[in-house]
Amino acid sequence: MVSSSASPEEAGPARRREKRRMRGGAAVSLDHCSSRNCEEDFYRPTTTCGKWHPGESQRPEIDDAPIFTPTEEEFKDAIGYISSIRPQAEKYGICRIIPPSSWRPPCPLKEKSFWESMEFNTRVQQVDKLQNREPTKKRAQPRVQRKRKRRKRLRFGMTHRRPNSRADSEDKFGFQSGSDFTLEEFHKYADEFKQEYFGMKGSDEIFLSEIKNHKKIWEPSVEEIEGEYWRIVLGSTGEVEVDYGADLDTATFGSGFAKLSSDANMQDPYSVSCWNLNNLPRLPGSVISFEDEDISGVVVPWLYVGMCFSSFCWHVEDHFLYSLNYMHFGEPKVWYGVPGCEAVELEESMRKNLPKLFEEQPDLLHELVTQLSPSVLKSEGVSVYRAVQKPGEFVLTLPRAYHSGFNSGFNCAEAVNVAPVDWLPHGQCAVELYRGQHRKTSISHDRLLLKTAKAAVKQLWMNLFDWKSGEGKYGWLNTCGKDGVLTSAVKVVAWILLILELIICLLNDKHTHNICFAILDKSSNGGCSKGGEW
Questions:
Q1: How far apart are CA 346 and CA 384, in angstroms?
Q2: GO terms for CC (predicted)?
Q3: How far apart are CA 35 and CA 12, in angstroms?
Q4: CA 69, CA 493: separation in Å to the nearest integer?
């Protein structure tokens, strides 16, 4: 266990503690603490509006997502294993993957240098406003008055807000930028919040006594926390605000997995593992391996440092990619997933139940700031499944599978995208939807497709001259056959390009209609010149 004592090398700890006594003008009282350096009281939240109501639980009654337990042999090939479980897992949208007992990678984030020194910024989430809130314009009021009321609502510890945060915009709801924390500080802060909310402590003296004597404090079960979470989201309580360290770029903050060393003799075996999320996107067999840029959040993993009730709202991955999330340590994370084949039904249900929010902000689902109870979705015929992720486990989300969830306490997880070849049709579908929505893409689907096709052709030629190689480790013969997924994907793109080329010709020169219509009869996808000739 990492020591919680202050690091002597840490720059200005007293100044940082003084800075974090204030948050939006509400000071944390230190009057009853006998020691000026009393960190127990420093990390303790002040007052809270929300309190646990166990008799009013709103826990959804839904089925669990499947759990997969690969053998040692199956676990040697991450891309191959993900592809093998896809037919079963895609019926649920999400699934848990529990590694073999022998796979226990160390977490560099627990090292003293990371735990006590590396800072990250958080987002402030109003949990009670994730589903039931009024449109922004209806809530609008004079700015001075809004600020004054805001000060009364801010409750938990620490630094100032950043002025350019998304929620400062007057025209949309979002999460404000919150306080800066180290992992050590956030751990204490998250634990104090949870104990304050669920512990029902009668006095400060008893609370501090139990902390100092290291007594085990009663904690609610995940099921009880889940029921309370949805009670809050449904608006049956006072205001509840939490912080969430989300979308932290591992290239900046650091990864929870070991990274490759320049010294081969010092190489950690887990640094080359195919399940190390730093390696996964660029493994052979992953289409993203052909991406030239290190795209943050897609190729470069993101970290997520959570506390009780911190949430990730309903969304799909960019370009309908797979995602793989690994929990390094902490308390469970509760997930909800909807199969990709029911994505449209979920979107329709959210628009139906939150019409005013979508009327004001049609792209609301792209903002990742809105929840809708799984109970509501289930009542309208949408299939929803639950997964409770524990430390040392993966959660896989499938293409176009909407997912959401929350954390039951302090934890740290890491996630990245991956794209086996069977993702290609989903990626093409995403591109066409983005085109209609005038939405920017984060990767070039066509470039990935062409590079994948080039690699497949190369492998096929190698197979022709080397029968010992069989069909190749990643089954290029299956993907490139007449009905193969890669063949079909290339055909779809070719037809789209032909149709677009036809439209360009028609728009550029009205006298070339007949010539350009001939494009549809050509097997070649050569370009149509300015004069409409080949």
A1: 10
A2: chromatin; nucleus
A3: 19
A4: 37
- Whole-angstrom Cα distance, residue 250 to residue 328? 14
Q: Do 446 and 348 sit in the same domain of this protein?
A: no
Supply the DSSP string of 88-146, one letter for each residue. Answer: HHTTTSEEEE---TT-----GGGSHHHHHH-EEEEEEEEGGGSSS---HHHH---HHHH
DSSP calls for 47-85: --S----GGG------EEPPEE---TTGGG-HHHHHHHH
Output the domain CATH number for residue 233. Answer: 2.60.120.650
Cα 295 to Cα 298: distance, rounded to the nearest angstrom: 5
245 forms beta bridges with 305
Residue pLDDT, tens place only, 374-402 = 999 999 999 999 999 999 999 999 999 99
Which residue type, as a one-letter code, is found at position 55?
G
Coil, strand, or helix at residue 471? coil
Q: What pTM was computed for the model?
A: 0.77
Domain that holds residue 470: 423-521
Contact 298, 288 (CB under 8 A): yes
Query: How far apart, in whole angstroms, are the C-alpha atoms of residue 112 and residue 264?
Result: 25
